[in-house]
Fold this sequence. Notes:
nine-stranded mixed β-sheet; transcription regulation; single chain; DNA-binding; alpha/beta; D-Maltodextrin-Binding Protein, domain 2; Arc Repressor Mutant, subunit A; WH-like_DNA-bd_sf; 3 domains; two-stranded antiparallel sheet; LysR family transcriptional regulator
Amino acid sequence: MSSIPNRTLPPLNPLKAFEAAARHNSLTLAAEELNVSQVAVSRQVRVLEDYMGVTLFRRLNRGIELTREGSLLFRGVGQAFQDIEDATKNVSRRGQRNILAIQSYVTFSRGWLMPRLGDFHKAHPRIEVRLSSSPEAADFDTDNLDAAIRGGDGNWPGLHAEKLADMELIPVCSPAFLAENPLERVEDLAKVKLLHSMARPKDWTSWLEAVGAKFPPKNRLLFENSSLAYEGALMDLGVAIANRHFVQMQLRAGTLVAPFEQGCRTGESYYLTWPKDEAPSSPLLKFLDWIRIHFAPDESETPEMAPDQPLEVSSSPSRSGFSI
Length: 324
């Protein structure tokens, strides 16, 4: 049987001291990081230099400077320590089975997830949810996430995508705004302020085209994202074009109303995504079961929505797959 050669590695404590000193370009700062004396760091670096038979630092009056050999070593050792740190964090987090880290869009978080998160916590009080928001697609290699809400067509290499719901647009406004600005026909929208999300500039045009409107949406008030546009509608600023899933609670509470019953689908959908090469954790499986129930068709019905089938419109998602 052939023997397996042992790895030839330098002593790790001196290597750790060298990496810290090289990263900070200072023995003092390295000592502070490692919680040892400067003399101890210097001694460990000497041990490594003796082991390798080269000088790694030039000792200057006001500090230290890497030699050519030191720079070569630090280039490889620094990356190796970073890889070890990343792998340790990832494995450690995966081992803490009561933690669920999710990334979502701001509008999805504020409009749908956060109002219902208390229900999930009541059902699973031992699971610690860590919710972050970003308009960018999640990077599971670097972001320390279990899952992410993502919009688009569901085809992303390396990701499992569980479809939650299709995106459907409806106009909404406050009851007070509607009382002051009667909207009996679609054409009446030309007389009022239309609230737009700059992240989704085509939504109003898509809905107006779907219902056969003949005027362009020129009387506009622009917001950075859809969530702010919904807030504007609540504050009587005008009529927002909303994803109906994100305004269900306001429609039921009567703080928003839908002056026109017809919705239109954009061709985009929401998905819960996670890496294909990783088995979902127990908290993620519980979250998946919970979110499936809450996105069931019976919850998406609202008294303000007519039972008619929504119109279909074509949509061109952003490069990241979606906008908010």
